[in-house]
Amino acid sequence: MAQPTDGPATTRIDGIAKVTGRADYSADAVPEGLAHAVLVDATIARGKISRLDATEALKAPGVLAVLTHENAPALKKASAFPMGAAGHRRRPLQDARILYRGQHIAVVVATTREAARHAASLVRVTYQDEAPPEATLATGETKRMADLDFLSRAMSGDSHRGDPEAALATAPLVVDAVYTTARTYHAAMEPHATLAWWEGKDRLVVREGSQWVDGAQDTLAAWFGLKRDHVRLLSAFVGGGFGSRIAVYPHAALAALAAREVGRPVKLVLERAQVFLAVGNRPAIRQRVRLGADPSGKLTALVHESANETSRDSIYSEPGSRASVSTYTVPHYRAENSVAALDIPPPGWMRAPGEAPGSFAVESALDELAQKAGVDPLALRVLNHADADAHSGKPWSSRKLREAYALGAEVVGWSSRAAAPRSRREGHEWIGLGMATASYPSRQLPAEARVGVSRDGRVYVESRGVDIGQGTYTALAIVAAEVLGVAPAQVDVRLGDTRLPRSAMAGGSMLTRSLGTAVHGAATSLRDTLLDLARRTKGSPVHGRKRAALGVREGRVVALDAPSEGLDFAAIAAAWGDTPLAAFHRTHPTVLSRITGAMAFTSPAGIRTESAGDASIHSWGAQFAEVAVDEELGRIRVRRLVGVFDCGRILNPTAARSQMIGGMTMGLGMALMEGGHVDPRTAKLVNGDLGEYLVPVQADVPPIDVFFVGEPDPAAGPLGSKAVGEIGITGVAAAIANAVYNAIGHRARALPIDLRNS
Ligand code: MOS
């Protein structure tokens, strides 16, 4: 369901290319002279390489080179998050040290992929093992982020107001519970792949499915000591990112190293099992949530402590408290975030980092509080509704959360929910309903766009921003089309090439608002130019008219009082010959971005946070789940999911709905199926493939209803659109766990909910 103010429901303009196989993904190209690289990975978790023997591998047919820490050229330092886009702090093949199982230790390059794979199997490695590794959060030692280095302190997510311990000590109702979430993986359809070649000694071209080509360009330039504009990044199509392609990971450096070594284009496609180890993942997280409330269920205190596993080398923190810091009215609040450094691959961002696991903990705890208070869980949320953002002290820019609760409750039949568990049975199954709140901040990054009119009168849009499947091509076409008075199908969008204007990352649910604002600005100046030229074109139906009397309709400049005739864009282009019909726009959403210049595009430094302006800008949602539990089989089926969201103005209801269905499906996986199993003796991920790591398939996914109740939010800029990407997964796992409780009275505090965890 779309609001009257939303944009036109538009099928993705790149859809046909994708379903017919014409869409050109990074590994699809086969340049002349192509060679193939295959990686050899460490099979111990902690220690060093004592001997690496490539003699047999080098003798194998078709082999061109084997790169190891003994012969690989040096790579220079590149900045990792938050100052840059390197996914790992450590550079590959620079020494013999092994920090985790799956670390790349050699690259074999051959004329075919098969030859390279075979030769890779002939590389002999002996290790000096430092057993035993530490690989699970349960056994690791945690340290407060605030006690680590300066950057960790700055990013800790810690927060404090009032005196929560005193409030808890005197609270009539207290919930004190620990929630754990498993290590999970993006499982994007397209395996990560790099195709790299050199043009001369100092120019590098890289095709890599990326969420952030500016970041990747800058990082590769740093690693190889090149000028930034001597590295070209191409990422026209991406088969799913979910956070795994924001940073650029070591395999990309190794493909480029290999290409330079053999003097040919090199293609490196990670094996599926390598994808599980090489590009980040959501870490296992343990959260303790303490709630204090008065007898009616009104919150007085909330303490949210969160600890996640991370690698020894790269500190990655995932503050669960993002889901509790401002959603409800809580006078006394404290959030504390910690990490445990282990012998595991560096974790990284995965869809709604912080909010997704954080909402499981806090929204489950609220359900426990509702039970203790004898209050309906939805009524409890309404009772604690925050009328302003207590964290920033600012009013909300817009918040249709009450409307979302009400509509979701109506659709899912909340009024029929039995307050007591084990009240509703159908055949062998107990039926339960559960719900949770979802919120995600809407932030903005600087972006640039060029919008123009071609000779044939078609409109084009250009930027480096990428479409990772969420619909950037279509969303930008809609924005330009609306301003220029054409149909979205009349707009050609070119993306994902560092020769185009710079862009924000497709991450943090920021791209559409950030880049859409730039496209809106460029299209608006182009429209002014078109109006101006049309009134100055001799013989034009609008010749000599005042600019204020003109507008654009159906690809023509028309007089607003006589819109039936006008001068079409192709005629303007023809009449004005060499005058370029294009406009460029750069957004500068922060003072910082002006100061840091290019860094605004290559680090998150230019971010305008959700509360940087006069108001606090968030998207909101209400998630509802209906489950059926067969206790004899130990089986939980989700029978229905309903999500109602306020994301401001929805530019493209078709794509936004798809985003939510995808996010809610991922939330279902997080709730019931997904979890990396780690052998604590060896640190081995034993289910790192799509056969054993379970993600929801069609048969697992129930009917999903998605509704949007937001209105244009002027605080979010001229589009009025807030964040869409990540709120879909937020709250889903809690809604399902709460529904399981309502069905059978079992409180699941560990994800995924299965017999192993119960
Ligand atoms: Mo998202 S985890 O910012 O791709």
Structure description:
With 758 residues, the protein is of the alpha+beta class. 25% of the residues lie in helices and 25% in strands. It has 18 helices and 33 strands. A 7-stranded mixed beta sheet has the order 3-5-1-13-10-11-12, sandwiched between helices. Strand 28 and strand 29 (635-646) form a beta hairpin. Helix 9 packs parallel to helix 18 (732-744), helix 12 (472-484) packs parallel to helix 13 (511-536) and helix 17 crosses helix 18 (732-744). The longest helix is centred in the C-terminal third of the chain and has 26 residues, at 511-536. The protein is globular, with a radius of gyration of 27 Å. Dioxothiomolybdenum(VI) ion is lined by residues 211, 241-243, 246, 349-351, 353, 507-508, 726.
